[in-house]
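Page 37, continued from 36.
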C-alpha cells in the first residue's frame, strides 16, 4: 500500500516523535564503523537507502534502490539482469476512523476484494468482536496479543477474520499491539481475498477509543483507494560459469521506509559482496522486490531462475532485522540504545552450526543459531521449502518492524558492520575450506 507524505506524517504523529527520541545520526556513527577496514561503505549505504523514501514493491523508492544495486554490482564486475514481474498496488489517499470527536488514520489491508477504484464510507456500531451482544453489521474490533506483528497470514489474524465474517461484521479493525504502539502494516499474499474490509490500528491511536468500543458507540470508516498492478523487478548478478555456486541474497522492498527491517540487511549484503568478490568460484547475487506480498519476488526467482539446490555450495540470506538498535521501554516510550536488538534469528544447515556459533559468539540474538529444521520466516523459509540444504540466514522483527517510523534512527552502522563481518568470516571459512 502506497501512502502519501501527508498520511505518512499522520501515521507518525506527535506521539511517534515522543516514542523515538532523537538519537545519534548515521554520520555520527561513522567513526565506530569498519575498525578493521571492512564495511567502509555501510554508513553511506544506510544513508542512501534511508534517503530514497518508502520502498513498497514497484514504487519509486523500490525502483531507485534496484537501479542503485544494479550499478553497484556492475562496478564490482558482475553481469546483471532484471527479472521482471507484476505486483499488486493499493494506492490509498484517505483511510480514517472517527468516533465522536476522535479521528485517527488506519492502515488498509490490500485485498483482491478492492480491485479498481474503491470507496468505503460507512457508519456502524463500534464493538469488540467477541462481545456476546455483537450486532450484525457492526464494525468489529479485535485486540491482538502483544507481538511484533508482520503478516496477515498469522493464525490470530485469520481466526479473527473468520469470526468477523461468521458474526456478519461490516468491517474488521485489528489493534496491532506492538512495542512502538504504532499502527503496523501486514504482509499480504498477492491473491489475498477478504470478504470484508480489514484495517489495522496502533494501540496508541486506539487508547482514546476503548470506552467507545465498550459502549458500542457509532464509528465511521472513510476509505478512498485504488487497487491495481504495477511492474517490479528482482536484480540478479552473476559471475563465473558452471560448478557449485556461492549465492548471496537479500530483499529490498517493504512497508514504509523500512530502514531497519530492509536497509540493514542490504547494507551488510553489499559489504560482504565486496569482501568475497575475489572468490574464484561462481557467484550469484540476488536482490528481490515483492517482499511485503509474502515474498512474491523471491518465490518467483526460486521457481524460475534460481540454481538448483545441487548447484549451490552455500546460500547466505540477509533478511529482516539484520542489525537494528535495541531500546529501553520507559513506560510506553522507547529510548533507543547503541546495542543490537536481540529479536533476530540465525539459522543454518546442521553441519554449519558449530561454525556459526564460533563466528557469532557474543552477538545478541545471533549467538545461538538454530538448525533450519526448526523453521524460519521470510525468504529464508522459502529457501528451505525449496529444498536448499546448504543455507544460512538471518530473519527477525525489530521494535519498529512494519511501522511508519522505521527510519534512519533505528540503525547504527557499527552494529551492521559487526554482524556483516561475522558473515564475511563465516563465508570465507566455508569457501576457503
Amino acid at each position: 500500500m502506497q501512502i502519501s507524505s501527508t498520511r505518512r506524517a499522520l501515521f507518525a504523529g506527535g506521539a511517534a516523535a515522543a516514542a523515538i527520541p532523537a538519537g545519534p545520526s548515521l554520520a555520527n556513527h561513522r567513526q565506530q564503523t569498519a575498525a578493521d577496514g571492512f564495511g567502509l561503505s555501510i554508513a553511506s549505504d544506510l544513508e542512501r537507502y534511508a534517503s530514497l523514501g518508502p520502498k513498497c514493491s514497484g514504487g519509486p523508492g523500490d525502483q531507485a534502490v534496484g537501479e542503485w544495486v544494479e550499478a553497484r554490482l556492475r562496478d564490482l564486475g558482475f553481469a546483471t539482469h532484471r527479472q521482471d514481474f507484476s505486483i499488486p498496488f493499493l494506492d490509498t489517499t484517505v483511510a480514517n476512523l472517527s468516533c465522536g470527536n476522535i479521528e485517527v488514520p488506519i492502515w488498509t489491508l490490500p485485498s483482491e476484494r478492492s480491485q479498481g477504484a474503491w470507496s468505503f464510507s460507512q457508519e456502524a456500531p463500534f464493538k469488540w468482536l467477541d462481545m456476546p451482544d455483537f450486532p450484525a453489521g457492526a464494525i468489529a474490533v479485535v485486540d491482538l496479543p502483544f507481538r511484533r506483528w508482520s503478516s496477515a497470514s498469522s493464525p490470530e489474524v485469520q481466526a479473527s477474520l473468520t469470526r468477523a465474517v461468521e458474526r456478519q461484521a461490516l468491517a474488521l479493525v485489528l489493534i496491532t499491539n506492538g512495542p512502538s504502539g504504532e499502527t503496523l502494516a501486514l504482509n499480504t499474499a498477492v491473491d489475498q481475498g477478504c470478504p470484508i474490509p480489514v484495517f489495522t490500528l496502533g494501540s496508541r491511536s486506539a487508547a482514546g477509543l476503548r470506552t467507545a468500543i465498550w459502549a458500542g458507540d457509532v464509528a465511521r470508516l472513510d476509505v478512498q483507494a485504488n487497487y491495481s498492478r504495477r511492474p517490479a523487478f528482482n536484480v540478479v548478478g552473476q559471475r563465473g560459469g558452471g560448478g557449485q555456486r556461492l549465492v548471496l541474497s537479500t530483499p529490498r522492498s517493504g512497508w514504509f521506509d523500512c530502514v531497519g527491517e530492509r536497509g540493514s540487511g542490504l547494507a551488510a549484503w553489499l559489504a560482504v559482496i565486496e569482501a568475497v568478490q575475489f572468490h574464484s568460484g561462481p557467484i550469484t547475487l540476488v536482490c528481490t522486490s515483492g517482499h511485503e506480498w509474502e515474498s512474491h519476488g523471491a518465490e518467483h526467482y526460486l521457481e524460475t531462475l534460481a540454481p538448483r539446490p545441487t548447484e549451490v555450495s552455500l546460500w547466505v540470506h540477509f533478511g529482516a532485522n539484520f542489525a537494528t538498535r535495541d531500546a529501553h521501554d520507559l513506560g510506553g516510550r522507547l529510548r533507543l540504545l547503541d546495542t543490537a536488538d536481540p529479536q533476530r534469528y540465525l539459522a543454518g544447515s546442521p553441519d554449519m552450526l558449530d561454525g556459526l556459533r564460533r563466528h557469532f559468539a557474543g552477538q545478541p540474538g545471533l549467538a545461538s543459531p538454530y538448525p533450519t529444521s526448526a523453521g524460519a520466516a521470510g525468504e529464508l523459509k522459502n529457501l528451505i521449502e525449496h529444498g536448499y540444504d546448504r543455507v544460512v540466514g538471518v530473519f527477525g522483527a525489530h521494535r519498529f518492524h512494519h511501522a511508519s517510523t522505521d527510519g534512519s534512527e533505528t540503525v547504527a552502522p557499527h552494529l551492521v558492520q559487526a554482524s556483516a563481518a561475522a558473515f564475511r568470516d563465516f563465508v570465507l571459512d566455508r569457501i576457503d575450506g
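The two ends are 45 Å apart (CA to CA). Flag for discussion at group meeting. The domain at 25-87+230-432 is CATH 3.40.630.10 (Aminopeptidase).
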